[in-house]
Amino acid sequence: MGKADFLSPKAIGNRIKSKGLQKLRWYCQMCQKQCRDENGFKCHCMAESHQRQLLLASEDPNQFMDYFSDEFKRDFLELLRRRFGTKRVHNNIVYNEYISHREHVHMNSTQWETLTDFTKWVGKEGLAKVDETPKGWYIQYIDRDPETIRRQEELERKKKQDLDDEERGAKFIEEQVRRGKDGREPEEAPTFTELKRENEEEKIAFNMGSSSVAGPSKPSSLLGASALKVPAGATAKRKEPSSASESREKKKKSALEEIIEMEERKKKKQASASARTENWLQPNIVVKIVTKKLGEKYHKKKAVIQEVRDQYTAVVKLVISGDKLKLDQSHLETVIPAPGKRVMILNGEYRDMEAVLEGIDEKKFSATLTLDSGRLKGKRVEGVAYEDFSKMP
Questions:
Q1: Phi, psi dihedrals of residue 55, rounded to the nearest 5°
Q2: DSSP one-letter code for 276
Q3: Mean pLDDT (whole number) for 379-390
Q4: 17-21, 292-296, 332-336, 344-348 — which one is most confidently predicted on average?
Q5: β-bridge pairing 313-318 and 88-90
Q6: DSSP for 184-195, written as a single string
Q7: Do 377 and 366 meet the contact criterion of CB atoms below 8 Å apart?
Q8: What is the C-alpha to C-alpha distance for residues 34 and 24, in angstroms, rounded to an integer?
Q9: What distance in Å separates the CA atoms of residue 112 and residue 140, rounded to the nearest whole number?
Q10: What is the Cα–Cα distance from 297 to 342, expressed in whole angstroms?
Q11: Facing residues of 328 across strands?
């Protein structure tokens, strides 16, 4: 009996059935063939191709088991890194997402009998952090990529710089308070004198109208010059404290303004940090291929991103040869052009905006950009990291 026609209902039904996941008990890892039922698996085991694969495996079974174990470990950890990053997640969640791929390596062909054994082995080897809870085993990926470590160091350096700014602001306030206290003139303590009269019968009289004394017969002349007369420099001395208080108020205002500016800078940094994402690929930007797996022909070559797929994969076209490649985000890096050239911001608060490169700070690994699109056109942005922008073709 011949095969069913390609467009016949039976052939269409068979193709629909073969698309989904099948039972693990009817899968042959050596031949990488999935059977739909027990009869098909039995027929496959009796086939000559399957028997040849068994003979090859019987010669060195450890070699095949090590190969499948390495494949399972690499794909599982890659999924854990890409999908969950460094978050703590249940190992069964990662495994269910891993086996959803039809061509995955099955665990019964590896050196681990159960998922728990594999989780313990990963923790023992130091590839991830694992811990056991009443709900099961949890796993957390340890990212040892040099690029990631460099970014973490930059973030720690920025946090330390923020703390230094806070300490500097606190010291500045203390200095202002100390200067205000030092600038205040010490108040002279009042001196009291005893009232003495030469003649007990003489009456004391105060002349409130004028300070001049008419005749020696008036007894108020004894107290006119000392008690009622105001010295000439007294008014000037009274005005000095008011001017000092005004200067202190100005100093306090300047310190308050300094604190407000520091808070605004901190809020801007926090806003830019919250706007960051892991994926930075964007169409129509120039990138450099950094992976060596493609050979020296493509290593360190520049290309233009034509299309972005699944946020972390890009289809690039080489600038010189015109070849098209499909590469992962980790195999690419941004390109920094000469000052005055146009760039696109790939991460942070001004993501997806075009700008012009003004200058580069090699010590801080950052650059100064001027926005060239949107409602913020003409705004100057400083401290943009190298990996947050790239050249435009």
A1: -65, -40
A2: -
A3: 88
A4: 332-336
A5: unpaired
A6: SPPPPPP-----
A7: no
A8: 8
A9: 19
A10: 28
A11: 313
- Strand locations in 35-162 (E): 88-90, 128-133, 136-141
Beta strands across the sheet bearing 389-391:
380-385, 366-371, 354-361, 342-345, 389-391
Q: Which two tokens stand for residue 22?
A: 């099948």
Nearest CA to 330 out of 367, 362, 364, 293 is that of 293
Q: What torsion do the CA atoms of 385, 386, 387, 390 make, to the nearest 10 degrees?
A: 120
What confidence score (pLDDT) does residue 220 get? 43
Using the predicted structure, report yes or no on whether residue 344 has a pLDDT greater than 80.
yes
Contact present, 279 and 311 (Cβ < 8 Å): yes
Sign of the Cα torsion 376, 377, 382, 383 reads positive
CA 392, distance to chain mean position in Å, is 24
> How many C-beta neighbours within 10 Å does residue 130 have?
18
- How much helix, strand and coil, in percent to the nearest 5, is found in the chain? 45, 20, 35
| Token digits of residue 52 | 């040849």
Residue tagged 């801007």 (tokens)? 268
CA dihedral 318, 321, 326, 330 (to 10 degrees): -50
CA 253 to chain centroid: 34
Q: Where are the alpha helices (DSSP H) in the chain?
A: 9-19, 38-45, 48-59, 61-79, 91-99, 115-125, 146-183, 221-223, 234-274
Structure tokens at 287: 């990138």
Asked if residue 108 has pLDDT above 80, the reply is no
pLDDT of residue 253: 57
Record the tokens describing residue 311, joined without a space: 């946020």
Q: Is 300 left (phi over 0), alpha (psi -120 to 50) or beta?
A: left
Angle at 257 between CA 251 and CA 262, to 5 degrees: 130
Whether 118 shows a pLDDT value over 80: the answer reads yes
To which H or E segment does residue 267 belong?
Answer: helix 234-274
Q: In 3D, which of 60, 98, 58, 59 has the Cα closest to residue 79?
A: 98
- Tokens representing residue 106 in the block: 């099955």
Instruction: Please give the C-alpha separations between residue 308 and each of 207, 280, 282, 305, in angstroms, as whole numbers.
Output: 99, 10, 7, 7
